[in-house]
Amino acid sequence: MYSTFDRVAYFITRSDAVGGAAVHVKDLALALDRDGIETCVLAGGDGMYLDILRNVGIRAISVPQLVRELNPWRDGQAVLALRHTLSDVKPTILSTHSSKAGIIGRVVAKSLGIPCLFTAHGWSFTDGVGRGRAAMYRRLERFAARAGDHIVAVSEYDYRLALRSGITSEGGISLVRNAMPDIEPSLRARPGESPPQLVMIGRFEEQKDQSALVSAMAGLKELGWKLGFVGDGPTLPRVMDQVSSAGLEDRVTFYGYRSNPSAVLAEAQIFVLTTKWEGLPRSIIEAMRAGLPVVASNVGGVGEMVDDGETGFLVPRGGDEVLRERLRVLIEDVALRERFGHAGRVRYEQRFSFTRMYRETRGVYELVLGRPLRARPAVLSARN
User: Fold this and answer.
1) Could you tell me which residues come within 8 angstroms of residue 374 by beta carbon, excluding any fewer than 6 positions away?
2) What angle do CA 369, 375, 379 make, to 5 degrees?
């Protein structure tokens, strides 16, 4: 017997860090709720992300047994805990995000007969990941794909990688590029101001490469600039030591974690993302939304976002000298910063609007269910 309305549950691995996937889930849950579709978010651990969700009115449930690292004992406990939680929540469909939650979530959902999909925010076997780890996750993703009903790739790069790697067939995966809600015009950046403030948003961990940016800036001391980092994480002390050793303490600011970095971006003139691997990073969308020129490592789906020489510069992963010279050009050329920033804002409006992403994502849910989502009766009545 079907209930009179649908409930979409989201499942993500970590609640102790708020990265792009976590914000993606929050934005979708809020949009569905506004349309009268009941939602809840399940997350591993008991971190600050759960409080962020609750503060905006989203039901958030901790699955404390789920940890990021592979741990057979804890993973077995997480399977049992998730089965219990899903049996209580009774979702119509489960949407999983991040590798660990995607694997466990799809297996548990299948055992309970719950339709389930997985959104790949960058595969764990992508270029830049260690060979042994990549091989292990490739095998796990092939297995998990057989348990799930559909996959969403947030970039064409990840879409093609899934097909090349034998994860699924074309009928089993959809491309829905990441997007973000717009900001108030007052939060648009002014890239023509000088001296320029550079900013990078990203968690301090293995994937991101803040160290490469510090090394590049250490070779540009003769120019006028400031640099800010938004984020926290385990590699932060090492990068802070590097800044100190390079004698850049008076030019580099560590802002820590910001749930909404729009105000920091509004005061910046250049956005930088040095990284080892990516799917379709939301931080670049935030930067283009603000009207900033972007300098980013050409990994994953970054090349689908940044038009090299038009909205910013693409640099090779680990190409420190190229990075330094591209930054030098933008620091010295005010007109180029303004031109790139304007073009990036136009690109955001044309390709990365949240309305488009939400419509396409909801369409995937309805594809999996084989019918439209049903809103709460009170919402349906209010619209009639």
Assistant:
1) 4, 5, 6, 37
2) 170
Q: Residue 203: which residues within 8 A CB-CB, separation 6 or more?
A: 17, 19, 231, 232, 233
**Residues 342 and 198 placed together within one structural domain of the fold:** yes
What tokens appear for 350 in the block? Answer: 């044309």
| Rg, C-alpha atoms of the chain | 21
What sign does the dihedral 349-352-356-358 (CA atoms) show? negative
> 374-379 long-range contacts, Cβ below 8 Å, gap at least 24?
374/4, 374/5, 374/6, 374/37, 375/5, 375/6, 375/35, 375/36, 375/37, 376/5, 376/36, 376/37, 376/38, 377/4, 377/5, 378/36, 379/35, 379/36
Residue 107: inside a domain: yes
Instruction: Please give the structure tokens belonging to residue 236.
Output: 């932060």
Distance CA 378, CA 384 (A): 10
Helix or strand or coil: residue 252?
strand
61-120 pLDDT, tens digit per residue, is 999 999 877 778 888 999 999 999 999 999 999 999 999 999 999 999 999 999 999 999
The structural domain count of the chain equals 2
pTM of the full predicted structure? 0.87
Range of the domain at 205: 185-351
Both 152 and 67 in one domain: the answer is yes
Q: What is the pLDDT of residues 115-136, one digit of tens each?
A: 999 999 989 898 888 889 899 9
Report DSSP state, residue 375. Answer: P
Confidence of residue 378 (pLDDT cuts 50, 70, 90): low
